[in-house]
Write a structure and sequence with these properties.
The complex is a heterotrimer of chains A (about 220), B (about 270) and C (about 220).
Chain A lengths: L2 H40 L5 H16 L2 H11 L9 H27 L2 H9 L4 H31 L11 H12 L2 H34 L4
Chain B lengths: L16 E10 L2 E11 L4 E5 L6 H8 L7 E6 L2 E2 L2 E4 L2 E4 L2 H8 L2 E4 L11 H11 L5 H15 L14 H13 L5 E5 L7 H17 L3 E5 L3 H7 L2 E6 L2 E6 L1 H6 L4 H13 L1
Parallel strand pairs in B: 3-10, 3-11, 8-9, 9-10
Antiparallel strand pairs in B: 1-2, 1-4, 4-5, 6-7, 11-12
Helix pairs in contact in B: 3-4, 3-5, 4-5, 5-6
Chain C lengths: L4 H39 L5 H16 L2 H14 L6 H26 L3 H9 L4 H31 L11 H12 L3 H32 L5
The chains are: A mainly alpha (about 220), B alpha/beta (about 270), C mainly alpha (about 220).
Chain lengths: ~220, ~270, ~220
């Protein structure tokens, strides 16, 4: 069959898979963002215990393989009584993994806020919570966006692995189609193109728009 | 410490600010050496001297930006750097510092305005969230202060759009919005282009004349210091080498170092 | 569910052998990527704008799409064109291409970190391009590139489990096989995670020390 015929028959299925991919991306990105901010701030704590906890989380999830983490959460965790659906296991593992990388980005960004800003908040007698919430984090935000944007594109690519814990995402659908038709070039080629379009023409412009918004908030646009 | 040299509270007629035997070290370097300094209520004291003499450290310690190695600092009769415990004084914890810190305000050399907030928001942020003042009231006060420093028309601008002189005037308004009893001015014109220095000095002049404010100013603007100070302290090597009225210090310095410094400064000026 | 130590020690030899295979896969894949990185870098700096542009687009495409999909593409497509690829070969090829694109960006960043003035000084001293590159520019680009190069070495190592999905017998594949054979997944999967940890963490720390050492020994501020 021609490529056109291939697309007519199989594109809807691939699109369905792509939709699941996007959902995985959104859910894991939100989880990862929350974990990044939380552990990124903890990592700056002067308490060795608090700092240590954050360090353990970060080093553990950065030091082990995502696929292993996916398998462990989906297949081993139920043995301890925590059963997650494949979709849940997927974005939880992704969120935990990328949250660890994100935490270092958040930490770096907070440390990049000029020390003088911290001193200004002391002079105005602000509490640490107020200082972080209203002054430091808002200024860390534009700084962390470029590396966070790169990380988000990595996250999109990483979602392909959830196919191996039976999440019906783009990769899973592609494998299925390939197994039944053996039209590997068309199948995986189209899948690659869809990922490329998602990354370059949807995700990246969105992230650049976020960067623009953040710069404008700082009065710099 | 229960040393009688450091009472738990000063008597009612005590000065607004008192440095009592204050020493500050960075490693092996002694920046302030057993400093005794009194500043009375509503007094305007200028601190001058060469760099490294400890002038800025005096202000930073008063603003609790630096810790103290020896001695005690009192503000408004109560200890600032230490807190009473079991009949004696122990180094203050963060909670105690926060209870005392609002008495003191500081304006920095680099202004340090919050870039992600407008001018008005900069002046309202701390009064609302730290002092718990209602937003309308805080805004009104901020507007009054901005009018006083001549920045009313820029209230919705971001700091990055303002000149250095304009930002510094906003910084003064921001510090005043907290109604401090003591205002610290740390070389507030040193980072400004010459043509905007005057507008900032005008504001300080006004503050000094109109408000009930105790002020400590570190500056290189000798003429200005001479004009508005009640007292001038010349710092050298972590100690006060000489202090007195502006006339005395500038026209008739007694100390060798004071003379050297003043002649070097006035030559360069 | 109880952890069984006897089972753990029973499967340990097989796991260790698989670890060796994993390390080999990572090392070979990395070496290919290092070379491919240079190829991609130079192919973007030719005298022909068309070549530069096409290479750039290829690099962007490879960097923006998942390694796992590329892996399957290479492994399943090659036979359709008459090229018989073992899983191992397909894996090494794909890793080399994929991470080669990342490394070309690292090299580019390293080159850009060399101040423009260095090139101009070479001009002024009439140092030819070959010497300029080898004696002046590359030695300064190296410390700036090392962190990125180190990161991707560890990255490739941690991505090796993906290779199990096309049948390369490394750690993940072995753990899966053991799980399927014995119906016990707890010990194999946990051991895999643990082995990755105890290899990647010290390696990352050692790499950072190496970077600092190189930067210091070249007298360059880090």
């Amino acid at each position: 069959m021609s490529y056109f015929e291939f697309l007519a028959e199989y594109f809807p299925k691939l699109a369905g898979g792509a939709w699941v991919t996007v959902l995985q991306l959104i859910c894991s990105a939100l989880l990862a963002a929350a974990l990044s901010v939380f552990f990124g701030i903890l990592r700056l704590s002067r308490s060795r215990v608090v700092n240590g906890i954050a360090l353990v989380y970060i080093e553990f999830f950065r030091g082990t393989s995502l696929l292993v983490q996916l398998f462990w959460i989906y297949y081993v965790l139920p043995l301890f009584g925590f059963t997650l659906s494949s979709f849940e296991a997927g974005f939880v593992a992704l969120g935990l993994n990328f949250g660890a990388y994100g935490a270092e980005i958040v930490r770096g960004a907070i440390q990049s806020v000029p020390k003088a800003q911290w001193e200004a908040t002391i002079a105005l007698n602000m509490s640490p919570a107020l200082r972080m919430r209203r002054i430091i984090l808002p200024q860390a935000f534009p700084i962390l966006i470029p590396p966070a944007a790169n990380l988000t594109v990595e996250l999109l690519k990483a979602t392909a692995l959830v196919a191996f814990i039976t999440v019906l995402d783009l990769m899973f659908v592609a494998k299925q189609i390939n197994a039944t038709t053996w039209l590997s070039v068309q199948t995986f080629g189209t899948a690659l193109i869809i990922y490329y379009v998602l990354a370059r023409f949807a995700l990246t412009p969105f992230l650049r728009w976020l960067e623009f918004l953040a710069a404008r908030k700082m009065g710099r646009a | 410490m229960t040393d009688q040299a450091f009472p738990l509270e000063l008597p009612d007629d005590a000065p607004m600010v008192r440095f009592s035997g204050v020493t500050k070290r960075y490693g092996s370097l002694t920046v302030l050496d057993n400093l005794d300094l009194d500043v009375n209520a509503n007094e305007m004291v200028s601190i001058i001297g060469p760099s490294g003499s400890g002038k800025t450290t005096v202000l930073r310690m008063l603003m609790t930006l630096e810790t103290i190695n020896e001695g005690v600092i009192y503000v408004d009769g109560k200890p600032l750097t230490h807190m009473p415990q079991n009949g004696g004084l122990v180094p203050a914890n963060e909670k105690y510092l926060r209870s005392q810190r609002s008495n003191i305000g500081m304006v920095f050399q680099q202004f340090n305005l919050f870039p992600h907030m407008t001018v008005l928001e900069n002046c309202v942020e701390a009064p609302v969230h730290v002092l718990g003042i209602a937003r309308e009231e805080a805004e009104q006060r901020a507007l009054d202060l901005l009018a006083m420093v001549g920045m009313s028309d820029k209230k919705d601008e971001h700091p990055t759009r303002l000149s250095g002189g304009q930002q510094q005037r906003v910084a003064i308004a921001r510090a005043l919005a907290m109604r401090p009893k003591v205002m610290l001015l740390d070389e507030v014109t040193s980072a400004l282009d010459p043509e905007v220095i005057g507008e900032v000095l005008n504001v300080i002049r006004h503050l000094n004349g109109e408000h009930n404010l105790t002020m400590l100013m570190v500056t290189h603007q000798m003429g200005f210091a001479r004009e508005i100070s009640d007292r001038v302290c010349f710092f050298y090597g972590g100690r006060i080498a000489e202090q007195g009225t502006p006339d005395k210090i500038f026209s008739d310095p007694q100390n060798e170092r004071t003379k050297q410094f003043l002649s070097a400064v006035l030559d360069a000026g | 569910m109880e952890w069984r130590w006897d089972f753990t020690f029973e499967i340990l030899p097989r796991m260790l052998w698989a670890t060796g295979n994993t390390l080999l896969a990572a090392a070979v894949g990395y070496l290919i990527a290092v070379v491919m990185g240079l190829v991609f870098l130079l192919a973007q700096r030719t005298k022909f704008a068309a070549v530069n542009l096409v290479t750039r687009e290829i690099v962007e495409f490879i960097r923006s799409t998942p390694l796992i999909v590329q892996l399957f593409f290479v492994y399943f497509v090659a036979p359709q064109f008459g090229i018989v690829l073992s899983a191992w070969t397909a894996a090494m090829l794909t890793i080399g291409l994929h991470f080669g694109t990342y490394l070309s960006e690292v090299y580019r960043g390293g080159l850009e970190a060399v101040p423009r003035g260095q090139w101009e000084a070479c001009r002024a001293l009439n140092i030819g391009p070959a010497r300029a590159w080898s004696r002046i520019i590359l030695p300064q680009a190296l410390p700036a590139s090392l962190p990125g190069m180190g990161n991707y070495l560890v990255g490739i190592f941690k991505d090796t489990p993906m290779l199990s999905t096309i049948g390369v017998v490394e750690l993940m594949h072995t753990a899966n096989a053991l799980g399927a054979e014995t119906y016990r997944y707890l010990e194999p999967y946990t051991m895999v995670g643990f082995i990755f940890l105890i290899i990647s963490l010290p390696t990352a720390a050692a790499l950072r020390k190496l970077e600092a050492f190189v930067a210091r020994s070249m007298g360059i501020q880090k």
